[in-house]
């Protein structure tokens, strides 16, 4: 007997989602109801956030509470993060001006996910969720509002985007957000920059934009935290200096590299995690004295790194009087000691200004005395004296030879 096919209207129709949003929504449903992992469709950082939120919140359908913010809480969170806000201020204004024709909001949070800054948008009535969350002092951490881009970045320190059904709570599924971390000179998370839209698509690469501005803020914050260090700016092409792509390094007065931004770490191989800061000569192939000379130049100088890579570099000597670079400056620039090398007590004014030749001779004498005193303190050990002065042994030998030649009487009658 022949097998008869059932009528076509009796065959259940399979669900074939046609858009990315529909496929993501189906993957989310299968994950929470059947435990099917949507690898390849949803990013691993979002899946891990779903797992954390499932253990913590359990019910993705509940309403997310956004607690009111007291004036004292608002004041305290702003005071604690004043350095970050000062560094971010110019870029937040620039970013908001760029996005003024969109419905996107710019949000800056502290490392714990507490909002420090949020765009005030005229379309707030059409953005009920953003209207509730975009207030200084509101906590939008993962433990409070579930899976979001700023929540994941605050938790992991890695940039990410979260779109529509990738949010844990149903009430947030009309949102699209992209966030990036901002780090300080110690490599710690200092804040999170986020770009969020509600009930509409971005229409541009939000992840690239937020990453660009986050890098600019991070670079400015690092330099602000290094007022007592020599800041080096370098890159493989001089046109990249002064842009978010420039490499930055902070060098302390003992000639050691204390921090690198991401661009510098990629060019130099980074600093060993948990290890002592490396000598600048070891990392860049040039001693502190030679780098200090560049602080007197406006134009970038071409240098060769130990790896053989050529870079263009500028150096900015700190203006703080609390930093003592005079031992290195004396070797680098014996004809011109910096202001911080002068005695604090004002010297009595002579009746007549000394001649330029006499001034130069006095400075050279001070320079020689500094080297001689250091050598004597180190028992004549050239290596230890060079390390104390923050220069290479070759530089110190040249200075000693120059001093010996100056002291030698002229030959002939």
What does this structure look like?
There is one protein chain. This protein is α+β, with helices and mostly antiparallel strands. The chain folds into three domains: 71-223, Beta-Lactamase (2-Layer Sandwich); 227-321, Beta-Lactamase (2-Layer Sandwich); 328-340 and 358-407, Arc Repressor Mutant, subunit A (Orthogonal Bundle), CATH 1.10.10. The protein is 39% helix and 15% strand. The chain contains 15 helices and eleven strands. It has helices at residues 20-34, 44-56, 71-80, 82-98, 128-133, 142-145, 149-156, 206-224, 262-268, 280-284, 288-294, 326-332, 356-377, 382-389, 393-407; strands at 105-109, 115-118, 160-163, 175-183, 189-198, 230-235, 247-251, 256-260, 278-279, 301-304, 310-316. Strands 9-8-7-6-11-10 form a six-stranded antiparallel β-sheet. Strands 2-1-5-4-3 form a five-stranded antiparallel β-sheet, sandwiched between helices. Helix 4 (82-98) packs antiparallel against helix 8 (206-224). The longest helix has 22 residues, at 356-377. It starts with 19 loop residues before the first helix and ends in a 6-residue tail after the last helix. Mean pLDDT is 80; it is low at 1-14, 331-351 and 408-413.
